[in-house]
TrEMBL record:
Residues 82-165 form the Core-binding (CB) domain. It comes from Campylobacter cuniculorum DSM 23162 = LMG 24588. This is Site-specific recombinase, phage integrase family. One of its GO terms (biological process) is DNA integration. Residues 189-366 form the Tyr recombinase domain. Belongs to the 'phage' integrase family. Residues 49-76 form a coiled coil. One of its GO terms (molecular function) is DNA binding. Keywords: Coiled coil, DNA integration, DNA recombination, DNA-binding.
Amino acid sequence: MKNLPKNKNIYIYGKKIYIDYFKKGKRIRKSTGLNYSALSFAFVRNHYDLFLEENIKDLQEKYYELEQQQRNSFKQNPSIPNTFDQISQILLKEKSFLKANTNHTYSSLRKTILSFLEKHNIFYLDDFKREHSFLFLENLKEQNLKPKTITSLCFFLKNIFDYALENEALIKNPFFIPKMKQSLNLQKTHFKIFSLNEMIHLIKHSQGDLRLFLILAFFTGARTGEILALQYKDLDFQKNEIHIFKSLSVAGIIDTPKTKSSQRVIDMLELIKEELLPLKQKHSLQDFIIKSKRTSLMRQFYRLLENLNYEKRRLYDTRHSFASLMLSQGEEPMWVGCKMLGHKDLNETFRTYAKYLPKEVTHRATFLRGIKLT
């Protein structure tokens, strides 16, 4: 610790502040009993010698009085944002440069968090206690939210406290995130793919925009938003290519695709070309290929699955089905993952779809058999 004599030291262990000093040639470690925060650390530093001599409990009481004064000053000072509403609003403004879909997600997370806090009369940052963390998590689990959603909500709430600490609107962070895997019984999501026969069966029993969507989804591997954003101007029938440089968000906003590598030019397979070429003659280049909304497509898709007695699956599983089909049939992973799916590299492809790769060949370089070197 700077500006302290060499024989004196302050350090953190297990979130508690300790002092370290030598007495009669013997090193002594002593707990202050205070949880670490910027305020408590400064207090220990300013009262270091007193912690060596005076009663620890008396010093702790003195600190708690100081801490309470600081809290009151936060609440009484209108220039310092000290409510969840204020801080979360500032956070959203700072994230406004992000993609529209991401901003929509953050706004939704903020709304859910504020709803919980208002329900429990928690308005000021300082009113939130450690036990409220567990109450918050239990409340989310009772709503049967997806583990991914619960995780996002917890980390957004943590971001609120982190921001407050960085801007000195809070003394310490009371939010505690337990190990999410154990708390939510998180398991790796296993997608449910369609076989080639199922793909064809679904297409043959669908019509209109749903049929067109399934053809594109099953045989390009593009994401739902990417397909919904496609216009006829994005199709190149001379080079047999489809240009994917935009995506339609859940909020209905046209934006760039999910990642930089997602902006790509993919191959237009023959069966897609046969389907789209006649349609191009009837539409302008500015027309969207799929005119139905995402929610409408999902309803039609679920109804179709039910009518055909198929297990319910996500619309997004069409993308996984394309990847698993192509890889299992021996198509090059680089083509499937990086060109068609828009993965950054093959690691991403293998991490998700390794089990669909053809089984390893047990006998290699068979062409060398029979060659005599002597």
